[in-house]
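call fold(seq) -> C-alpha cells
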Amino acid sequence: MKKSLVIFILLGMMFPFALRAQDSEYKGTAFTGGIKVGINFSNYIGKSTMQPGGEAGIFIRAGRSFYFEPSFMYSFRSTNFKDFKNELEESFEVGQHFIDVPLLLGYKIVNKKNFNLRIFIGPRVGFRLGSDYDNFEDAVGFAQWGAQAGLGIDFWIFTFDAKYDISASKFKQYDESTFWKQNMVNLVLGVKFKR
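ret:
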C-alpha cells in the first residue's frame, strides 16, 4: 500500500512536465479522450488458472510525446480455482466485478499524425462491486491497489493497448496466514475523439 502511494505521488509530480513535453517532428493533439472495450485474463498467482473476462469504459489523454492517461473502466474478471481447503481437487470459477481507475504515464516512441507507438506505466486502483461466488466476498477487500505497464498503438482514431496488471493488495484464503495476489493481462481496443 505504501509503495503504491509513493508511485502515485511521483507520477502526479511528473504530470506537469508531461503536459509541456513536445515532439520536434509532430506536436499532435494535447488533449483527447474516448471509449475503450477489451478482454482480460486474470488469475491468482500459483492458485488458479486464467479465464477470459471483459472490460469497458472511458479514458482521457493529456500531453503530446509524454502524456498522462486516467481511465474509468468497468472490469469483469474470471478465474478458475481448486478447492484447496478440503483437498478435493474440485474446480470452481469465480467471477468478480470491479471499477478500475488506472493512472498511466506514457511516452510515444513513434509520434506521427496517423500512427503512434507508445509505452506506459502507472498505478491502478480497483473498487470491488461484487463476486459471483458468495464465499469469496470475505477474502477480497473493497479497494485493490496495483500497477499496470504495457505497449500501445494508435492508428487514425483507433487505439490499442496490451498491458500487464499486477496487484499490490493481498487476499486472505481461509485463514489469516495465507494470502494470494492477483495478476491480469488486458487487451483493449478504443476509439479516440481526436487524433
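The first helix runs from residue 2 to 20.
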